[in-house]
Amino acid sequence: MGLRDKVVWITEADSETGRSIITRFAREGARFLLNSASGGAAIQEELALLDREGLAYATVNCTLLKRSETETMLAEAEAALGPLSVLIHNNNTVVRSSVEACTEEAFWESLDANAKTAFISTQAAGRSMREREQGKIIYISSIHADKPTGSAFAYSAAKGAVGMLAKEAALALGRHGISVNTVKVGPFEGDDELFRSDFSTLYNDYRYKVPNAVLGDGNDLAELALFLASDEARYLNGADIAFDGGFLLHYMNFKMKKPKPAP
């Protein structure tokens, strides 16, 4: 989809989504700026793939919480790889907390990890992309920007902040040929434990609340991210894409598509 030699910055390369995106985008010949908290240790398989394919990449470990540090890191990466074409912000830190009991420290930890990193990386990427009047910014967010978790209040608040950041960025940066879109991811395998709640039943039988009873995964997400990063998505800007298989449309439990009992 036209990503040959384009530089793609993934802000959380170590995650399932990050690894899936690396693998899929490598098939399109992209170059990569990979922010890896493990210093590359968690993505050895993906880095080996890039080496085999002869694709350029840089692996960094940047907190994305300081503007000057992030801008310096990006400038150094661009000097080695070429100009940035795509930013994929996929930071996804869940800090369990309730409105009643959440500490200030937990609240700011979640805002920093999920929202401030989006703000800082968007500023850095936006400045770079404006010079060429083109670029793509993709936020991998969550349905919990809109739907309470019942277990991670500060996470929902942070993802809600990312949602409005995306809209403001789409409006401002869109004038410079930069598209900004958000993917709100619904339940993947294990999210019932990740968002386990003492009072919300949202994730009870969660896989069957997806109408087709089939959960998505990182590979599905990578395909959507690829489209959003491509020229084929040129007229898409400021969009919120619900990537949940219809999970939030669920209404009546007795209508769930559960496996039929064995005869």
Automatic annotation (TrEMBL):
<dbReference type="GO" id="GO:0016616">
    <property type="term" value="F:oxidoreductase activity, acting on the CH-OH group of donors, NAD or NADP as acceptor"/>
</dbReference>
<dbReference type="Pfam" id="PF13561">
    <property type="entry name" value="adh_short_C2"/>
</dbReference>
<comment type="similarity">
    <text>Belongs to the short-chain dehydrogenases/reductases (SDR) family.</text>
</comment>
<dbReference type="InterPro" id="IPR036291">
    <property type="entry name" value="NAD(P)-bd_dom_sf"/>
</dbReference>
<dbReference type="InterPro" id="IPR002347">
    <property type="entry name" value="SDR_fam"/>
</dbReference>
<protein>
    <submittedName>
        <fullName>Short-chain dehydrogenase</fullName>
    </submittedName>
</protein>
<dbReference type="GO" id="GO:0030497">
    <property type="term" value="P:fatty acid elongation"/>
</dbReference>
<dbReference type="InterPro" id="IPR020904">
    <property type="entry name" value="Sc_DH/Rdtase_CS"/>
</dbReference>
